[in-house]
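Standup notes, protein team

Yesterday: finished cleaning the Halpernia humi set.
Today: GLPGLI family protein structure.
Blockers: none.

Input for GLPGLI family protein:
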Amino acid sequence: MKNFFLFCFFISITISAQNQRFMYEYKFIPDSTNLSKVETEIMNNLDISKKGSKFYSRAQQIADSIFSAKSAQNSRPTDFSGIKLGKVKDVVEKMYPDFTTYLFQTLGTDTYKIEDDRKINWKISPDKEKIGEWEVQKATTKMYGRTWTAWFANSFPFQDGPYKFSGLPGLIVKIADQNQTHIFELKAVKNLSDAEEWKSNSEETGYLKSILIKQDIFKKIYQRYRADPVAGIRQMMNQSGVKVEMTDKNGKVLDIKKALIDQEKSMKEGFKKDNNLLELDLIK
């Protein structure tokens, strides 16, 4: 009997420690004034290993790889048109066992690694149901300026979930905000080999070196960026010995001052339609 228990314990640890990929569908409404426009990112991967987890858009990962390869091959301006971008560009990494959480986000010319130490306080309900093939239980929380309802499966030995969500006694299978404008739902599970274990964006070649900052500092930077999205380019232009050149899709060099004005106007118009951020408290 003792040997049997030891064997079961060994099997449990082996299963828990193996690399796994959880594939989520993400539906979201970017513009609160246009609820009929629903965006969908089909392949969002949560890769889990013994060191932690990484949540990212597979489509954006492929696009980033193509960008890096093309840039390495050409010293001249490269045409990136035709490359399909992911709709989710942010990456979230959580480090076990304390679940230290980092969000990688690029604003203008800078890429940030944002440490978020805010704890998610869950209220677990006795309500249960079945989502897909998984038996799940309900939990709620208030986080990022929203109220969320999550459904977690304790059949998975991971207290993790999509994006920054974690801390429940099982994997989050589905989570949605109170207005159903941001919805993550698990669609498939895949075992990974040791060779497929995720690498941090800090370690990956081809990515810009990230600036490590705290969440409260990033919030101020983000709000300044929304107010003046081309400030970084202007700063580069004012640096001695730095030449900034902008071209159109045909490679024609543009008047830099006019191009910046046009770009700033276009980006600010885009921000007006991107008013329903997942982390709503970033802009409120």
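Follow-up from PR in the comments: The chain has one domain: 18-282.
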